[in-house]
Amino acid sequence: MKRIGLKLAIAATIATLVSAVPAGAGDSPAVRNCTWCHGANAQGYTVAPRLAGQRPQYTLNQIRSFHDHTRDNPFSRQYMWNAVAALNPDTARDLANYFASIAPKPANDGDSALAAKGKRIFMEGVPEANIVSCYACHGPNGEGIRDIPRLGGLAYFYVKARLEQWNKGYHSTAGSPMPLVASHLGPDEIEALASYLSFVN
Amino acid sequence: MATLGLCFAVLTSILATALCQSARAQERKAPAVGGFESKLEYCKTCHGLSGQGYLGYFPMPRLAGQQPEYIEAQLRAFIERRRSNPVMFNVAHVLSPSMISALANHFYHLNPPPSDGAPRRAVALGKQIFEEGLPESNVPACSACHGEDGHGQHEIPRLAGQLYPYMVGQLTGWSKERGQGTAVDTSAIMAPTAHNLTRSQVEAVAAYVSNLR
User: Fold this and answer.
1) In this complex, do A123 and B39 lie within 8 Å of one another by their Cβ atoms?
2) Per-residue pLDDT averaged across B47-70, rounded?
């Protein structure tokens, strides 16, 4: 517990120190502060999701929801709340635009045997089980639009965790339909969706 | 490598903490699948919690205040592929006739305010087209069938408060989506009118009706 506290303190200090520096360039301290966990070129690393190619309005909304503590799942509380605490709105916007400009690479880390099932749920939903089609909002290749996030190519672990968290009552952006959407997804559907999406280019 | 190791150690510790915390959140109980409440919630996931419509990757139309006969006719058109929409085909084909009429009746009685978002500049032209039509282009007044208030009647849909992008999409792509196959349906009535409107006239009408209550 102490070790985590120390590391968070270090991370928060770094965030404070670099937030005054404008983002916009790949090697700026503000960008490096993100890619430290979000991976080289912001392609994602273990539990930290890929930011590359993400819709800038979505990224900005998430930064805001970490800042306001409305996105309150355990990783958000433990890491992102501190990470964005000292981020000013201009830097946040620059970072969101910068990461959006990087070409995203698919994680390809799901179970390929489940990809066909996942694709079917993504495109058609399961009307008998009141599972809605993901495609209607996230687009044919999960590319997202406006403040609706790109899902195509996100890591298996991340998509699975997010879908599970809505079901457990964690909050995200106010007004999001996702708690309702996820409430009908069982473990099998979540695994299939997370697997399929990890391969989408 | 040392950096990655440190990062991984931090993340692993966080994961352990996270697992301990997950029991704190409240699980949400969904209504039983198969019942009216659950299906209604399913519709509202995409069409908005008050049936006010929602902008996803595609615009999902407002159903609030919509004429029940229109909703029923469109759901049949999706099922019979006269109106091509792969998502709505899947949605519609599992709905029983009694469920359809219960859902349509529920949405008819909702009355949320229109969602703002249409450009304002063309509203005056839109009002003129809506009330008088464009005689020189063979466009009749919309109000002749959809009513002065744009609330529609029977199979003629309510337009009042409809989402601007949805209106534009439907009127500019009328014959690509509706009236498919060989069977003639009521969508044929609108085809020449939609065709005779220019893009900017479509936008004007859409802007006007999207603000009607």
Assistant:
1) no
2) 96
